[in-house]
Amino acid sequence: MTKKRIFIAITVIVVLLIAGGYFFFRSKLQPTTQPINAVPTDAAIILETNNIAQLTHSLNSGKNEVWNQLSQIEDFYGLSSQVKFLDSILLADETLKSLTDNRELIISLHPTAKNKFNFLYILGTENTGIYEDLKIWVEENIQKKFEVKERDKDGVSFFEGELKNHSYYKKFSYAFYDGLFIFSFSSLLVENSVNQLKSGKSILSLTSFKSIYDAKGKNVPASLFINYSNASGLLSSICSTEKLNLSKGMKNIADWSLMDLKLNEELLILYGFSVSSDSVPSYLNIFKNLKPVGFTLDEILPISTSFFLSLGIEKPGVFQTNYRKFLKSLNKLGEYENYLKDFKAKYQTDPEELFRSFMGNEIAFVKTNIKGLETAENTFIIVKTGSGDFTKDKLIELLKTYSATENTNYKLLVSDYILDKDKSFPVYSFPFPEMLSVLFGDVFAELQTKYFAIYKNHLIFANSKKAISEFIYANVLQKVLSLDLDFVEFKQSLASNSSITVWANLANKQDYLQQFLNPSAYLGVEKAFDKTGKFQGLALQFSASEGFIYNNVFLKYNPRVYREDPKTVWESRLDTCVAIKPKFVVNHDSEETEVFVQDMNNTIYLINSTGRVLWKKNLKERILSDVFQIDYFKNGKLQLMFNTKSKIYLIDRLGNNVERFPVELRANATNGISVFDYENNRDYRLFVACNNGKIYAMDKNGSILKGWEFEETEHSVKTPIQFFRISDKDYIVFADSLKTYILDRKGKSRVDVKEYFPASSNNSFFLDKDPKTKKHRLVTTTITGKPVFVYFDGSVEIKDIQEISTNHFFDLNDLDGDGFNDYIFLDSTRLTVMNLEFLPMFEKKFETAPKFPPIFFVFPDNQRRIGIVEQEKNLIHLIESTGEHYEGFPLKGFSLFSIGNMGNKEGFFNLIVGSKNNFLYNYTVN
């Protein structure tokens, strides 16, 4: 062979090799099938991600608290366990990670048996080269390491393996087909997926699905697709038999919803839109040409609301037209029109026109956890109206027509909810229990609307008068969602306007779910509560705009939000937290007991025995003194006297200033005023110390007393001026930081105290008798907590028994009832009680240091107890003389508290205390 021929031959071979290599490698890099094509069309939920490693690792990193909590719930554990299993495989092998990195993964949920669902995983490989490499990796790492068996079905190899050391899943199945890796813990789903590919048809052939699939986010962690028709079966699997119709109605919400996923540490957000084909009935389509509206019903919904579904209806007339079209698509329009026709013929009223005449733009189905109501009673329908009075007139007109038609007495349809002697609300029977479910849909069918009432401009429906009454009572006490800081915070995450808003308070037990769920599902809810109780709320919103229905889901984690409801008689909302010890006062007209209190904004309140705020007014300054109830006019009518740093106030029971009050002080007060009635003749004397060193003595009008001769103190006086009478002698006592003053009524020194000592600024003097000599003495403490005895001959005795902090509190009282006073010290976290010989009676420690002095209580059975406020823990304690907690304590509370009687039956008392969340609590104490 010549050189020329050899060259030609070599050239041909090289060309053939290059061509063969080209076609070989081109076949290796040929694109493979999209994973979405392998999803069986019975999918209820589809989740798609373009980066499996990133998604699984972000979920399992521990940084997302929403997923952390969900994954611990038994009913979520299956999915969580599978995600952790996949993540562990990806993290363990760099080769697999490179093969799956930035690859498309689909997780879909499908029915596998009656009331059973399982997950299917489909991994895309992008091209045939990666597909082949993945098959090799699986063969070497799965088939050889696990007990995997291969079976052939219709020319396709299916593999089934077993996880011996996995607690939740034992068997798994997978197949390679058409460039996809298909995996599940159900062999049936793997076969169904392959069959879907073999059919040549895809879920993308569904027009409604394709439209949202093409609109999914490009740079999101994952996209979620919900098929409402198929998902209704998922809901049916957990529904009680009585509520199956509700789950079946889910298929009429829409065709599909797309929701792109967004995660941060404490919030899970899904956002997208929903679509429906014209051939499928869709409740969402009712809102397509209605603008979304702002949600305002939180202004009336009780703070105990656990669930609501609210419709924002911009134009009630348009809604009714669209609703008719929806009913027509369900072949139910005839039934609807027959109801309206029969109702109008019988009662001369068109229900559509009736509601259109007074309705505003919101209606909601509501579930609450109001104490004292049965589960069924904790159900309401709330309608926002244009005018409460107009609405009442229209409904009364209907009731009168009903009475005439049915030959009943109209007056029997009306009763009063009497809150107290000054406040009542009419409650009306509503003999048309099915009307609202007919007009607005099956979601309102659960409530039999037997009663209604008007509160402000809201129409409230319930199935009992008691339920209506409690709903109104919550509003009177301002226990509503719009004033709840947790709800306000959560609401900020929501869209400001919506067509439909569904909200669930996961932080409180959802007892009403027991009637909706089958026993197995409800048991799962109960078991999960310790996890779901850490979620601030779950909300779903649909909002119509320019022909589209946009949807959002919000799930927020907040472990601080869970609170167990206090066992209170009532809880009355203030503008902010309580600032002073609540004061029991007497209503001189009714002789009822009421409560006077001031909040941190310096607003004062008078609250009656039902918790209703009778009046409130702002003082601009904090009250420094106790609140004294005096008979200023000597006519049996009582007023309230107290001081701030610049003024002395005298206020009547209606909240009005009396005569010349408030009286301006000549300098800023350094203590609270003292009010003395020397002869019990209501000629009151007022004493106050000011920052100019003066002690001012005044008559009840606030005028300086003539003859008061005291000059001034050496240092500021922080504790109130005290008055003691021993035999026929009066003693006016106070102390600055070093000197003790004991004066007569004229301000002259009555006792010359012979020794200076640094007195505690937290503690006053207590009158005591020396148990040995029977001589009277005054008892207080030094700044380091040493007991000091000041005798009326001027001598001073200091007991060097201890040394404690300068912030300590001291009280002297007979705690054990043996006739001798005991020494009570509260310092930092320690409460110490000693007997008259300074021997310890008990010592009790608290978790945090109380910031208020101990409160001494004597009960009618002569039992004595000590009240302690642990403000940092939001707890109040009532301590027995043995050092043990009184039964039922500690209770929730944030302020100093008072115990008294507000009309309870014998043997029960009221404890009034401020809460951390701006309420004034009224507990019953046995």
Task: Report on the architecture of this protein.
With 926 residues, the chain is of the alpha+beta class. The strands form ten sheets. It has a 20-stranded antiparallel β-sheet, with helices on both faces. The protein has a four-stranded antiparallel β-sheet with strand order 23-53-52-51, with no helix packed on it. Strands 24-25-26-27 form a four-stranded antiparallel β-sheet, with no helix packed on it.
Keywords:
four-stranded antiparallel sheet; 18 helices; alpha+beta
Q: Strands, helices and their partners?
A:
Blueprint: H1 3-28, E1 45-49, H2 52-60, H3 65-70, H4 74-92, H5 94-100, E2 105-113, E3 116-124, H6 128-143, E4 149-153, E5 156-162, E6 171-177, E7 180-184, H7 187-199, H8 207-213, E8 223-227, H9 228-236, H10 244-248, E9 256-263, E10 267-275, E11 293-294, E12 305-312, H11 316-329, H12 333-347, H13 351-358, E13 359-368, E14 379-385, H14 388-406, E15 414-420, E16 423-429, H15 435-440, E17 451-455, E18 458-462, H16 465-476, H17 485-491, E19 497-498, E20 500-504, H18 519-532, E21 535-545, E22 548-557, E23 568-573, E24 583-586, E25 593-598, E26 603-607, E27 613-618, E28 628-630, E29 639-643, E30 647-651, E31 663-664, E32 674-676, E33 685-689, E34 695-699, E35 722-726, E36 729-735, E37 740-743, E38 749-751, E39 766-769, E40 776-781, E41 787-791, E42 796-798, E43 809-813, E44 822-827, E45 830-834, E46 840-845, E47 855-858, E48 864-870, E49 875-879, E50 891-892, E51 898-900, E52 909-914, E53 919-925
Antiparallel strand pairs: 1-2, 1-8, 2-3, 3-7, 4-5, 5-6, 6-7, 8-9, 9-10, 10-22, 11-19, 12-13, 12-20, 13-14, 14-18, 15-16, 16-17, 17-18, 20-21, 21-22, 23-53, 24-25, 25-26, 26-27, 28-29, 29-30, 30-31, 32-33, 33-34, 35-36, 36-37, 37-38, 39-40, 40-41, 41-42, 43-44, 44-45, 45-46, 47-48, 48-49, ...
